[in-house]
Design a protein that fits this description.
Elements lengths: L4 H6 L6 E3 L2 E3 L2 H6 L13 E3 L5 E4 L3 H11 L12 H20 L4 E6 L4 H18 L6 E7 L2 H16 L6 E4 L2 E4 L2 H16 L1 E6 L14 E7 L1 H5 L3 H14 E12 L3 H13 L2 E11 L7 H9 L5 E4 L2 E8 L2
Parallel strand pairs: 5-6, 5-10, 6-9, 10-11
Antiparallel strand pairs: 1-2, 3-4, 4-13, 7-8, 11-14, 12-14
């Protein structure tokens, strides 16, 4: 049985290394840093299948563009940005949180838990900036900490942040120690348009494994934690999820929120997922629960085919769920 796109990508997910003055990325993080930027914004021609978790996506311009990108192996960055329903859900949740902190005239501290590459981080930050704009929350009162157990995406972001904040121009390359990486013109344009707003946000980076409680000692105390399919990265074992949730519970302030997107295999997994959060004092806000599709959960040939066949449509399972949790204790 063919593997979906994400299953193929995560085969290359190892631990990035630093050896003898050189950064050696794992295959996954090296691949993700070349992702293109694309977002689905035209509803993807979505038509729901009655009494089913499946949706049918027609050949809209955005879907055809998506198909062509996967065909050329110019895979778009996923994270929260690519899928319209995911992007809008996160935007709305952040607006709600930021509006409450604006009313209290307080700073807001956000932890981005896990990042595939600088492309994924800055497309995520685009959503954050838009949410700040809609809510009226000042960018200079927002603190964003980024944590990952691999050094490659963190060093990418560190190098680019240095250029964004301390150089007049954002160059065609960024450097991680001795290695020079080329930045695509698309990425340069995207960052240049947002440079002045990005510079106002307070950013810190942490090389940490959230499964290790001793690793979180130097992290802060947070109002918001965002997690996008980290459950897929660490494996869906109860022990790993339990340890990460214990970290979240310790890191979140009372009343703080976890905004989570996770793959859902079946009802048993979902029940188990909820129970782990509840055990750590993280109350599920079930009214926020939203089921969505994700292109990375589909076999590549299926997506590629829709770009070539004018009579085709893309059938996708809504097997991913977004939900908000609130720390109660």
């Amino acid at each position: 049985m063919p593997l979906d796109i994400m299953q193929n990508l995560t085969r290359g997910l190892k631990l990035c290394r630093f050896e003898n003055g050189k950064v050696i990325p794992c295959e996954y993080h090296e691949n993700r840093s070349t992702a293109t930027i694309h977002k689905l914004s035209d509803g993807s021609g979505e038509q729901r299948v009655k009494e089913s978790r499946q949706v049918i996506h027609r050949r809209t311009p955005d879907i055809i563009r998506l198909s062509h990108l996967f065909n050329k192996k110019a895979d778009p960055a996923g994270s929260w940005y690519l899928v319209q329903e995911q992007r809008e859900w996160l935007h709305n949740q952040l607006v709600d949180v930021l509006t409450s902190y604006l009313a209290k005239d307080e700073e807001c501290f956000l932890l981005e838990a896990g990042v595939a590459s600088y492309v994924h981080h800055y497309t995520f930050m685009d959503i954050v900036i838009e949410a700040c704009g809609e809510s009226g929350f000042p960018l200079n009162k927002l603190h964003v900490d980024i944590v990952d157990k691999c050094i490659t995406p963190l060093y990418q972001i560190a190098s680019i942040e240095r250029s964004l904040r301390h150089k007049l121009f954002l160059g065609k390359h960024y450097r991680i120690f001795d290695r020079k990486f080329r930045m695509s013109s698309q990425h340069q344009t995207f960052l240049k348009k947002r440079k002045e707003k990005l510079k106002q946000i307070n950013v810190k980076l942490f090389l940490r494994d959230l499964r290790q409680l001793e690793d979180i000692q130097e992290l802060g105390s947070y109002d918001v934690i965002t997690e996008h399919f980290l459950t897929s990265m660490i494996g869906k074992q109860r022990e790993s999820m339990d340890k990460v949730r214990e970290s979240y519970s310790r890191l979140l302030k009372k009343g703080g929120v976890l905004l989570s997107a996770t793959g859902v295999r079946d009802q048993e997994f979902w029940n188990n997922f909820l129970s782990i959060h509840i055990q750590h004092g993280l109350r599920p806000e079930l009214k926020t629960k939203t089921d969505v599709w994700d292109p990375y959960g589909i076999e590549r040939g299926t997506i590629v085919a829709i770009g070539h066949n004018p009579d085709s449509s893309l059938v996708a399972a809504q097997d991913n769920t977004m939900i908000r949790f609130t720390r109660m204790v």
